[in-house]
Specification:
The structure is a homotrimer of 368-residue chains. By secondary structure, chain A is mainly β. Chain A is 2% helix and 59% strand.
């Protein structure tokens, strides 16, 4: 069997498969000159991942993947699993069921980067123990987590859960879900919510709360999506309430997005599997006489970090992406994004904090 | 063939096999509050290893394994080998024949961590050249080493050797061995012998010599073990003498342990191979109608770091471990340890340096 | 199929192959005592690489390799490729067509280290987009590049190209080539050209320009080589002109080498493929009744870093190497080098800057 890389199978239920992805990015950013923000051309290897996954007889399994982008190592997934029917129990570092876009692989999202709130609110993989159960058209996920493997050992912890209904209706795949997140932090912890302008190859953030003391976080997400042939739509909203120590007011920040997409090539559709978007498999791939799949996406992305005496700014993003999928495991994309800021963290000429930033990026991707 | 992962074989003697292990730990530590020691809940990914091993026609081979725990990379083994009959010559980073427990894989030891002296005395893999010869019931190992690959290039070096008799007697596997270690350090070198309280997810050390100047180290170890059906016993002692510059007295520190273990499940026994403990292969694994292997271990672990004007403290550890091995390549364990300190490095209430610390830990493990 | 490691192939043009190499070095350096230079014994793991390469149906492919030497990670190659006939397009981190020796794999060069100028002039892999076309006896390579993946994102860029003629003439393989390199650096950039004395396990550089401000670099290389049965010869010259800001004089540094080599074992010859030296495959390898291939190489290596008010020194290196290749994928080598310095960066007794340094090194290597 082959799934981008060989799936090697042994007697009794053994399997082994290498995993990996390369995402090579370049692009440009245009911000008002008076902000002093680093702009112009930028490039990077966005993700450079290598790992393995496998099945062990008796219902056990593992997934272990590392990211080497930037010449540093980060553990992405590192889990041991046990599965029985629709039930999967996972121990180790994995995602905390934050929502549709965060849980969809970076290989399959509609734009180069996920919605602004997913980075801003600190979504990340954490070491923990979780269970999920997938039944006919339903998915329930819940777990208790510590912190990211790179930050352990400490006393931070969270409980996280998500519920998804995924009915098929007249040939269309529908998706409705909600997630809850509660995290408690060691005393003395400070948080910082911020986000880059649409592309990742810059370190400038025009929207940024700065560091503030936090005792706990309560997050709630809603998600909806639909896939009907060449068309898809998706939307999410996430409310993050932070409990600050003492008498300080507790802000509730908001982020969300809405997108629509359309394949221009005949017979192509967006993949979907177990509560997340999955791989696009072109009907007529390059190498078999075809040209692959071409998709156009439009997206509005909102992030509001100004609440309760914390003035981090708001960002309204408008994005257009063109995605070419020559074959199942190759992808090229071009993205344009326009970010409108109010109360931006970096002032422009005359102290003006309302202005726009343009960003353009291209990506080449292979995965296996 | 399959050994946790596929063993891919080619004509003429070629082979290739991926290697890896994940160990996910959590637990809690209780120390006297007056020590100010960080205690309570802790968690970490203890080991996250990935690598390869293989055979090259002509008697050559290699083993290359990396550890990514904590989001940093360390080279574990990185050796090129040549073998002919019972002889194996190894060049590169590998273990320096320090003794039974240090040489037994962390996947197969009886408690979550090895005996206190193995960390305290700085046992680690080093870059060097070694030869070992295994004959009928005998094993000889010797090598010359520089330093750990991460610390090179420098002028530290050591010679290390080990001799093991491993007779079978009336169905029982016996093990008797001794090791010698001599290291010389660059002038200006300081050493520090210390150890965590039984579990690894804390950075507190109640026993600690502090840094002291050292010119050379002379270590001597004795080891004995026996496996008889479901029962095993093992004991080691290690004497580490440090030559300090000038007229300073030269301390000889001691560490050692004794343990007994028993499988509660019928037909199970501890693996043993070439002078070290090996994998447990449950007689009735999960997935084949069985429940795997259940083993109980009791251990006494002593470390004495108070000698010749260096007062690092003594630690007497009492540990109980419960090990569940559902299948050959999966393992779950729960450990309780009670550490009794005298002359501890961290004073408790009223300057008291004699007190006890409790530690509890659980681990989930897969390997291939 | 097997090429050091298994080449796993799937239907439709899929392939997957692990890649790796281990190079374990030791040796000694003797410099005039008065330089105060760290000399004597040294050792290291020179390269510890692991990665993968593969083909994706439709003409796509990838190569992704990491280096873990020294306990740090560096991305070596990380490219996605598209090929059609003699054309290959590559996106990601790869070599910038700097010349024969830099492009020849470190597994196949004649001495333990490449010519002094290849390190001194900052040759490295960079993230970029390139195309190469190989026709009958011709090779053209060109690309635009940013910086090394570890240094991105920044605004440095370069264009690089190389042209090679590789005719066969009466059974001999000839090689003639030239390369051009132009790099522009962000304002405020400083460069430093320097090189170690022949071996890598020291951090001492007797030849060193120190840091100087630079706006751009223009490099030009010429290369020639011939392989005729057991004999080979190769030579390169490289001129690197640096544009310094303002009225500062613009120095042109020079480096180059010439070498000859001879196999003492019958039937052996140096491999050559697509414009670079390739693997030696012994006619009578160890394990098949033979002894492998024995080769002797002699080399002169020049580096001149004293130009236009920058006095970095000159280095004339004379080297002798003995290479034993027991089998296709194993290699042992011993090297002796004598470096003669003038205007050395480190003064000896009485401020003398002309003196010699001796270096000796051995390497054990496996690769797959």
């Amino acid at each position: 069997r082959w799934k981008g890389a060989p799936v090697i199978e042994g007697e009794g239920g053994w399997s082994f498969k290498p995993r990996g992805r390369l995402q090579i990015d370049a692009g440009t950013i245009a911000a008002p000159a008076a902000t002093g923000a680093e702009d112009g051309f930028g490039s990077e290897i966005r993700r450079a991942r290598l790992g393995v996954e496998g099945d062990i007889p008796g219902g056990f399994g593992y997934k272990f993947e590392l990211d080497f982008a930037g010449g540093e190592v980060e553990i992405a997934d590192a889990i041991a699993t046990y599965g029985d029917g629709g039930l999967t129990v996972s121990a180790g570092q994995h995602n905390t069921f934050q929502g549709l876009e965060e849980l969809t692989s970076s290989r399959f999202i509609s734009t180069m980067e996920r919605a602004a709130f997913t980075d801003a609110f600190g979504f990340e993989r954490r070491v923990g123990l979780s269970a999920q159960y997938a039944a006919d058209g339903w998915l329930v996920q819940a777990g208790v987590f510590g912190d990211n493997a790179d930050d352990l050992s400490n006393r931070n912890w969270s409980v996280d859960g998500r519920l998804v209904a995924m009915p098929e209706l007249g040939g269309a795949q529908l998706h409705l879900g909600g997630s809850l997140h509660y995290a408690e932090y060691e005393s003395g912890t400070t948080l910082r919510y911020r986000q880059r302008p649409f592309v990742h190859f810059t370190d400038t953030r025009f929207i940024d709360t700065g560091r503030f003391a936090a005792g706990s976080e309560l997050g709630m997400g809603l998600e909806a999506a639909a896939i009907a042939g060449p068309f898809h739509a998706a939307a999410e909203g996430f409310w993050q309430k932070v409990d600050r120590p003492g008498a300080l007011a507790d802000p509730t920040f908001f982020g969300g997005y809405a997108e629509v997409g359309l394949f221009l090539t005949r017979g192509d559709t967006r993949g979907y599997k177990r509560g997340v978007f999955d791989r696009v498999k072109p009907a007529s791939p390059v190498g078999e006489g075809g040209f692959g799949a071409i998709q156009v996406n439009l997206r509005y992305d909102r992030l509001d970090l100004s609440e309760a005496a914390i003035v981090g700014g708001t960002q309204d993003g408008y994005a257009l992406s063109l995605v070419w999928t020559p074959t199942d495991h190759t992808r090229l994309m071009a993205n344009y994004g326009r970010m409108e800021y109010r109360g931006a963290a970096i002032p422009a000429a005359g102290g003006e904090r309302s202005y726009g930033v343009d960003a353009f990026g291209v990506r080449a991707q292979i995965d296996f």
